[in-house]
């Protein structure tokens, strides 16, 4: 039988939000982006090109169900129904399995477009550190992709890699960043890139008497270094922004910014919704195109 | 003349003594956290089991990942050269040596003297090494020994999508949840790693005879998957884990003759 | 757009880059037939351009899929890059 874990340290909070001051009923165009990632799913609803509601949930074993649940949660207490939305774009790993989507668009294009909205048109480089992949994207002032890569083959540099470490050290994933910064001296980074080998390395370090914080510092800095070498392939041009779950991990971000000698832009929005937001923006253009054709 | 070979593997340290082309004794120790102490111990045991003294040993050659750290070795040779030399000692017809250890996979093309002509390596990534199988047997909660055996009873071919050991672990867990028989999962795992090893071997060419050494050579499930992938029956030398140490001892012997 | 297909893992960096700005005007897409492993396909991308891409199920294993064209000894020219007359295809390894 599979062992039941008492506590899973990598769990993070799920949430939804909507703008209570906005009345959507008289809106001309309501669109949505649904980002079904391998670990988390987000829905963003936009009313006439403005952010109206969003949700962020853990992806279940079934993509269509995850998409439906995230959508229902975003719609909660808004009075809006699925039928009120004019155009829906699916994106992310499970984009072709969003049953109510009008079109699927890759997460690369959606992140660039969403990043352009969240951080403004000056953003030229977006790094998205997701649950099971890491994307590096260069884009122009309209949020169109000019150069990209996606690393989803290897767990190093992804949220999953960090979860493995959080679990190994029995530390909550949300605390990893702050704990890793609470060290007197910055240790040498963990030398193995591969998560499997890095785990054995960490075990030996603990046995040598390293504190958990020091091991976390060594791993966060290894992850930052790893992401810098990925970014080298596309080249970093300012302004620079970081999205995805790991953008919330100060331990990785501070070290990454230090190594690049560049500060990343901050956004008032949750960075995890960038993909879904881009989807909703694509949906708006597509809805307008469709309307023109129909007229 | 007596010479010694020490193979400083990542997990196990092996020592082998030869006298005029005949193997005298073989010993091994778990590397643990003090690999040098383990090497010292394995070497002392070998010397005493052979009934000789340290002074009787003319040359000591080290190989393996930690080869440069052995203070009492006279010289070092690479794992690639050591394996080819060691395998051809007992199997002179071999021209391709595949070695899959816990942390590395290698393919070596050699001539009739065991001289290396070409080689390809996969390192620093668990996807192409024995650690991949170990991680999957843990995820499946089947002991490694059994994991290799049950794989042979499966007649199904289930593809595995994940390459990375971390992602593959989640895939194995989902397969378990979907009530896939453990034997079929084991076979899928062995087929997956074997296919990666096969494409590495293709880079040096599949020239007969082909030998397989390293820890994974004792896993019958992997050997079966590899044979199917290569379309060649591989030779697994007896005492496959000692070929590195044997190769090092043989090269030390050649040095002694010069 | 420079589309980098492939990955980076502990063992190295394996990317095939397709410069779609060069690829877009190609009338033959010779890469599709030239690749012995059939890694290439023609797609309509997110901006509705018809360009070559690496098939999705190969992107995580191109190091292995491309192994046949990259022997450990002397390496002949890559068939995909040779067939690509606009010069849009490059390999990182």
Radius of gyration of chain A: 20 Å
The tally of structural domains of chain C comes to: 1
Percentage of residues in strands of chain C = 25-35%
User: Which H/E pattern describes the elements of chain A?
Assistant: EEEEHEEHEEEHHHHEHH
Q: What overall form of chain A do the CA principal axes indicate?
A: elongated
Low-confidence stretches of chain C: none
**Overall pLDDT confidence of chain A:** 92
- The count of domains of chain A is 2
The portion of residues forming beta strands of chain A comes to 15-25%
Helix/strand class of chain A = alpha/beta
Number of β-strand runs of chain C: 5
Overall, the morphology of chain C is globular
Greatest interface and its residue counts?
A-C, 25 and 17 residues
Strand order of the largest sheet of chain A: 1-4-3-2-5-6
CATH architecture assignment of the largest domain in chain A: 2-Layer Sandwich
**Radius of gyration of chain C in whole Å, from Cα?**
13 Å
Secondary structure: number of strands of chain A:
10
Features:
heterotrimer; A: 295 residues; alpha/beta; Nucleotidyltransferase, domain 5; 2 domains; 6-stranded mixed β-sheet; 4-stranded mixed β-sheet; 8 helices; 10 strands; disordered N terminus; B: 258 residues; 5-stranded mixed β-sheet; globular
